[in-house]
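To whoever is on call:

I kicked off a structure prediction for a single chain this morning and the downstream step that reads the tokens threw a length-mismatch warning. I double-checked the sequence; it's 221 residues and nothing unusual in it as far as I can see. Pasting both halves so you can look.
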Amino acid sequence: MAENTNQPKVINKAGTLKMSDETAATRKQKDIGGRPFDRRNNRRRDRVKADVAPKEYDEVTINIDRVSRTVKGGRRMRFKALVAIGNHKNKIGVGVAKGGDVTAAVQKATAKAKKNMIEFPLDGETICHEVETKVTGADVLLKPAAPGTGIIAGGVVRSIIGLTGVKNLISKSLGSTNKVNIAYAVVEGLKAQVPRKDWETTKLKGEKKPATKKATKKEAK
């Protein structure tokens, strides 16, 4: 049976012929060169998913302050950032830097933190022993805790300890509330940790105790 060619053609407002749903489903769009858009898009460099390498260190911006400096023309405003970085194991670093904007200050502080990283020993998931450190007016006390205790600490101490492998800790800030000094006091406390095998009491256990005066007198008789 011959097709009816006298059917009216449906034209859109733009002046083009309207395509049926069946034709639109099977039709592929092509560029000027006759290549399908799908093939061309897959070759674009900006659409190729690059392998994202995992970060070696995690960073936390603890505090950002706006500071000013008075000069001849008036006041110059800048930003001071306090950043801590760690690997969630036994490495931690703290840096402080200033910049014209927040992004520049954070980048400078992160670079300083990486440069001043320390490595400290751990006793399982807690610190090796109790320690109290003081940096200018900030006095911080760190104490080991039993498993399941968690991190009992304030804002700055919690932010720094959260970047380490310590899961159980008790701390108390006894002095100034300056966040920069507290951060450096925490780092000094972790830096002062001594492994259990290097304690003096542990070393003396394997050694013989020296003879007392009474025992010496008996041996002389």
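Update from on-call: the warning came from a stale cache, not from the record. Cleared it. Sanity check on the structure: The beta strands are 58-71, 74-86, 91-99, 118-119, 131-135, 138-144, 151-152, 169-173.
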